[in-house]
Amino acid sequence: MIVRRQLAALALSSLALGTAFAGPAMAQGDVSAILNRIRTGNTQSATPSPPPAASQPITGEPIPVTLKKWMGSKKAFEIFPNRVFIAGYNLGGFRTAKTTGRASGGFMSTNPGAATTVELVAGGIDPPLLTRIANAAYADLASQLAAAGFDVVTLDQARNAAGFDKLKLDAAPYDVEVPADRGNMRGVVVGPVLTGVRGNYPLAKTEFGSFGAPELSLTLESMVVMPNLMLDFASLRSSRSIGFTASASASLGFDLAKGYSHMRVMASRRKQFLEGDYIFGIDAAQVPETPIGTITDSVESNNRDQQLLGRALGAPVQARSRETSVAQIDQARYEAMALAAAKGWNAAFVAQLRTMTGR
Question: Stretch 83-88: mean pLDDT, rounded?
Answer without folding.
Answer: 97
